[in-house]
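Lab manual, section 2.4: Encoding a predicted structure.

Procedure: take the sequence of the chain (309 residues), apply the prediction step described in section 2.3, and record the output as structure tokens. A sample record is shown.
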Amino acid sequence: MIDAQAVRDAARALAGVAVRTPLHYVEALGVHLKLELLQPMGAFKIRGAYNAIRKLPEAARRCGVITYSSGNHGQAVAYAACYVGMRAVIVMPETAPAVKVAGVKRWGGEVVLAGRTSEDRQQKAEQIAKREGLTIISPFDHPDIVEGQATLGLEIAEQLPDVASVVVPVGGGGLIAGVVVGLEAAGSAARVWGVEPTGAPKLQRSLAAGRPERLDRTASIADGLITLSVGAVPFAELNRRRSRVAGIVLVEDASIREAMHFLWRDCRLAVEPSGAATTAAVRSGAVRPAAPAVVVVSGGNVDPSLLED
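Recorded output:
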């Protein structure tokens, strides 16, 4: 179980690497947006990726790291590895958005394309890791990743001490588990809403079943939220703190597109589909968070064409 001291240690280590992103109140929504798209590589993933890399032993650092990612975690690992002077190999899907592939390469990451599913990428990464002696940095299913993401919850509680609810997008579960853990570490009583695309309800089904459930297939415009299952580590951390989870809601792709256009048109924020899912949940009425509420805008690595009306 991740404890409060570990989260505070991770927050101190991230100083100067990750940005303490601002809260931006949007009157039309009645919520504060937590602008994680302002991180150096454009998404919250730097928190977990750097925390995992900084804890590697020296021998592992000399060999390098590898991960499997649809985009933002890959960019975060590439950025963190570049920051500490390590080699990083990123296995991405053949369908990865060009903006995210370019982002990985910008930070010196070596891109390998493999298949279309997270299983395809994971299998390829495991093969390369074994052959080349690289350490795998999981996108979400590791305590160090959840611990790093927990700094987001800690930060929200420090910025808005009376926060009552936080709305978080759900992919593999690392972010929502981290936010719950971080709020707890800060002594906050805020409860957390998770948002998934209707085409990828893995956490909703897992919580109902009492164990991680694997979906046969997933599909959504929100490419960062379509894992087939949530990780065992995030699920365990959430399951220990079920009373802190207000609920898991689903949003349609049409609502996500509308939210992206709203954020661009009214807030001048270029937000990727996965990052706009939480705003979509509020605008569609899928969730009505208790105020004061914070909506996590998780990333901004978006193809500009998606912002066109």
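Check your result against the sample. The domain at 4-42+142-307 is CATH 3.40.50.1100 (Rossmann fold).
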